[in-house]
Amino acid sequence: MSGVANRATLSGNENGYWVTYKSDRFGFRNPDQVWDAPRADIVLLGDSFTFGAEVRDDEHYAYVLRQRHPATINLGYPSSGPLGYLAALTEYGAAKKPKLVLIFFYEGNDAADMVRDFASPVLRKYLTPGFRQDLDRQQGEIELAMLRVISEAKRQFRISPPALERRGFELQRWFKLQELQLRLELPSFYAADRFDRFVDVELMSTIFERIRELAESWQGRAVIVYLPAWRNGRDTERTTRRLERVRAGMIAAAQKADLPVIDTLPAFHRHATPNRLNAGAPNPGGHYSPEGYKLVGEVVLHQLETMNYVSR
């Protein structure tokens, strides 16, 4: 659910600079002292966008929220999905009884990742009320296991770096092909397949409902934040239509789970220079630019204040 704890960690470089951060005591991306507060103001759940991929600590929406609400804990981590969000809240966030839980739903892959994670017998158990593994008390064992995996990866690289280099080159060619598809407004059949097959409203609403019930068990609240997949004005027209189906499915699931939604998509559309909201403009990457992340933070904070979910 997180990385190696208490380590200087290297992230990505989509914005023209390498991003490093110091992980907290549980391997998440927070100032470690946030865990010392008796109760959290806000807990953030999400994937690489909530983690803050490709931007510095002070360029992310977690920073915007933390400036107003210091006891904000970020449990976002790359490759996580909605079922993983529930697991992270259960294992790490619940102990801090946050007043507010924000579920950041990324339209680009969260619906697909949810179905992927449902195939895991362990993750499925988090749908059962009361299931918990007490991972926050097993950090030493988790740390050793992760370091063994890292050590083995280093060993494999020393043994056969050319094979890994060839794999990286093949991936690079694939991403260049995807970029060409986007620039020529060609349909992405990979994306179409993901969006067509993986919108399980019933499962999504069940996960949202479990998160809401957990928050309510300590008199907290939960809110969903919708994050757009923002590439060159939201990809091609065909992909946009498919993303709209994901959006409609997520909204239906939120309504079924009785959870409010903060939709950040309109703010992206209204922006004066929307292409600047993606990493690596004018040649967009997969995540947001610092400007994009800041926009999300400002929209979320404003909407929460308007809803009287946080103090002004």
Features:
312 residues, alpha/beta, Rossmann fold, 5-stranded parallel beta sheet, 48% helix
What this model shows, in words?
- This protein is an alpha/beta fold and 312 residues long.
- It has one domain (8-306): Rossmann fold.
- Helices cover 48% and strands 10% of the residues.
- The chain has twelve helices and seven strands.
- The strands form two sheets. A five-stranded parallel sheet has the order 4-3-5-6-7, sandwiched between helices. A two-stranded antiparallel ribbon has the order 1-2.
- Strand 6, helix 10 (237-256) and strand 7 (261-263) form a beta-alpha-beta unit.
- Helix 2 crosses helix 12 (290-306) and helix 9 packs across helix 10 (237-256).
- The longest helix has 23 residues, at 161-183.
- 39% of the residues are buried.
- Residues 178-197 have low confidence and may be disordered.
Task: Describe the structure in brief.
The chain has 312 residues and is an alpha/beta fold.
Give the SSE map.
Layout (H helix, E strand, L loop, with lengths): L7 E3 L9 E3 L19 E4 L2 H4 L9 H8 L3 E3 L7 H12 L6 E7 L3 H9 L2 H4 L14 H21 L1 H23 L5 H9 L3 H17 L3 E7 L9 H20 L4 E3 L1 H6 L19 H17 L6
Parallel strand pairs: 3-4, 3-5, 5-6, 6-7
Antiparallel strand pairs: 1-2
Helix pairs in contact: 2-12, 3-9, 8-10, 9-10
